[in-house]
């Protein structure tokens, strides 16, 4: 794998060196760093890497990506300077004309937050997987220990296409589909769009995004869950971040907990941002319910696991101190320019 990554890096650097215009540099970026690029293909192949080697491989992939991006940016700047200098030689500037302002786009705050979360977990050996947004009721509810008539089904009121097909209310169905395949151990992160019949306000939307994680292996304990989420919180909000777990109930995990992080604005002393408590609720988690394992064909006597789920918008709102979720979707250029 190390040799493969080195070959990808060498090939990318040669392609960057050979590029003689910004468009070709962009082609190189897409080829090696895009969604269907070679580095992404390596991440998708993490399932074939031994679990103990995944953190090291994830780190090597991140280092390779960073090296390629650095050289790309450096060459892009040099190229733009050369093009600008050439234009200045050829063009006569009329200083009385009004200036032209170019608006350059950039990543949406949701995308920035998602890439940050994916970076943290791929560095710990997780594989990013996706699933269908239009889902069977069987996977969205029953496979997750939420049978017909269960109160949790009312809490997750969703949009039905027919009796058996819904717009998914969470990305947990992806976990059920992966568990059904029976390829153990499992170590995945499943981000994606979800839907619930909510009124639009400052903290709710009928369409939003979730990021869920799942590990299934032998001898997995709640201590592993706590350690993983503590690393995640420190990477995302800073080394001084503390975590607190409160008992909760989720149908598909037992025991279950809500995780709070110490307020990164006041350091836990209490402020307006954390409503004086010093803590901010961030995600739900727990040990995978034995019945869920059984329904997905996994022996709960031999295997255990943990799962967690966090709203992507919640991460973005907290990280960038945004007080209204609607701002993320209104496409107000004055708001988006701040990121």
Folded structure, characterized:
The chain is an alpha+beta fold and 339 residues long. The protein has two domains: 2-90; 109-336, BirA Bifunctional Protein, domain 2, CATH 3.30.930. Helix content is 41%, strand content 19%. It has twelve helices and nine strands. Strands 1-4-5-9-8-7-6 form a seven-stranded mixed beta sheet, with helices on both faces. Strands 2-3 form a two-stranded antiparallel ribbon. The protein is globular, with a radius of gyration of 23 Å. The protein starts with a helix and ends with a helix. The model has no long low-confidence stretch (mean pLDDT 85).
What attributes does this structure have?
19% strand; BirA Bifunctional Protein, domain 2; seven-stranded mixed sheet; 339 residues; 2 domains; two-stranded antiparallel sheet; alpha+beta; globular
Order of helices and strands: HHHHHEEHHEHEEHEEEHEHH
Calculate Rg over CA atoms: 23 Å
The 3D shape can be described as: globular
- The chain-level mean pLDDT equals 85
CATH class of the largest domain, anyone? Alpha Beta
Tell me the distance between the termini. 35 Å
The CATH superfamily of the largest domain appears as Bira Bifunctional Protein, Domain 2
Strand order of the largest sheet: 1-4-5-9-8-7-6
Enzyme class: ligase
Coiled coil: 61-89
Cofactor: Mg(2+)
Domain Aminoacyl-transfer RNA synthetases class-II family profile: 117-330
